Amino acid sequence: MVDKQFLLNDAQMQQFIADGYITVRADYPPAFHAQICQQLDTVFEHEGNIGNNILPRIPQIQRVFDHPALRGALTSLVGEGYIMNPHRHCHLNPPGSNGQHWHKDCYVFDHNIRHPRFHWILALYYPQDTTEDMGPTGILPGAHFYKTISDADPQRTREPALPLCGEAGTVALVHFDAWHRATANQSAKKRYMLKFQFARMREPSAPSWNHRSHVWEAETDGTSMGVWNWLCGNGWCTQDIAASSAALVDALDDASETARLNAAYTLGMIGESVVPTLIDTMRRQTIASIEETTAKPPDNLHGTNPTAGCAAQALSVIGLPAVSALVEILDDKHWWVRAVAADILTKIGPVAKQAVSPLTRLANDEHWWVRRNAIEALGTIGCPSSTTVRLLVERLRDTDYRVRRNAAITLAKFGQLSAPAIPALVDTLEDENRYNRFYAVSALRHIGTPPAEDALLDALFTARWCPITTKESAF
Fold it and tell me: Which domains, and CATH codes, for the chain?
């Protein structure tokens, strides 16, 4: 159980939503964090950067994320039952480094569509006191909702930057889509930062933090307020808007991204009457983005994570009144339109129950991205059935690794109702993709029946990692 005194409050949640970050601290004695630093020194000296295996290699790191302050903050942000994703990385920023350009992280070889309604967050842990001259991670507060910034080169970026500093044990929890970078290390000290990722497993139905008032106290921002309402478990309240809806729709194509976002969230407040126009605009914007969607930039050769278009964001804010129109466009002839429509239904969540049957059909679509998004939507909407579970078992054997991964994630969300999938999940423990293996483990754990637990224990005893076995001490 999470100790409620460590849950975030309304002001802290609103800071995270508006600025894209908040810092907490695992306040163990200094010797605890110093020991982790010493072990990191040993690992880097003798083994190099061991990537995802940094946690089993130094299992004490898990205690950082088990600290009541971290458990409380993570529960507040991504809800009860959140999971630690299998990708993690220790970033060593040595003295004299020049730092990085501004960038957003990819979703670890998956093709999630970026959206203000965050389901993943980054956790950046400093095991040593970190000052500004040591090259801490820098972020652009408030820019996480934006697809672009003035310039990725920090020498030319106009947005105000913030170095995330702190004493040993500081953990910065950061919106997954935040613009960030390693800054230049101008000191004579090494700077370690361990980056972990956490993900939501349940859609918000009520505040998961110490909630007192629904009033938005921060500076007024339609996008932030939309996220706040979603996290509170409330749909956007329809309001009378003085502005012309036609002018707002035109603004969805404005040269200014700020104007486009403001228009989208104002249209979301108007509600059902603008749905037909937004559907047409979403389709046009979606098709226009196909070249960007399918690009494979040099730093991300497996593909990209596109940002939801402004018309798509407006439809997700409208919610239930938009579902019928979105169900109709699931049959669109263009695969990317079908995929985006499924993603909007993912963001709308449990109220989109009428979309379950068409999404089930779409999970057999000819394009992998459509199948992937349809399966993800089934997981966030819920309403599991034997038919859906059988479909997901089939998709665990899909030719595309992203489809298999999201089938396993959705089975995990269905819990014990996914018990018929146990044999297929056991097969997935040998999937060629390392992350798919993890999500199969996660699904078995969430099923939690004796056969699922037996399968987990069998896998554990085969794959058990010994953190003190190294090439210098092999036995």
Answer: 4-199 (2.60.120.620), 384-475 (1.25.10.10)
